[in-house]
Design a protein that fits this description.
Layout lengths: L5 H26 L3 H27 L3
Length: 64
C-alpha cells in the first residue's frame, strides 16, 4: 500500500491542477488574434508552468 504525506498530496494536487489549467490556456493562446491577449496568456502560462515545476521538485524531495 502506498502512503502519502499530506504535503505530498498537496503537491500532487497542485501539479494536476496546474496542468489542467495550463492546457486549455495554451490552446486559447494559439487562437488569440490580439497581440496583447497572446502576450498576457503567455505570461500566465509561464507562471503556471513555473509553479508546476516547483511542485514537482517539492514532490521529488519530499518522497519517503
Amino acid at each position: 500500500m502506498i502512503r502519502f504525506t499530506v504535503l505530498q498530496l498537496v503537491m500532487y494536487t497542485l501539479v494536476f491542477y496546474g496542468l489542467g489549467v495550463a492546457t486549455p490556456l495554451f490552446f486559447l493562446r494559439t487562437q488569440a488574434t490580439d497581440n496583447e491577449d497572446s502576450c498576457f496568456l503567455t505570461v500566465v502560462l509561464f507562471g503556471i508552468v513555473a509553479f508546476v515545476i516547483l511542485a514537482i521538485i517539492g514532490v521529488i524531495f519530499l518522497a519517503p
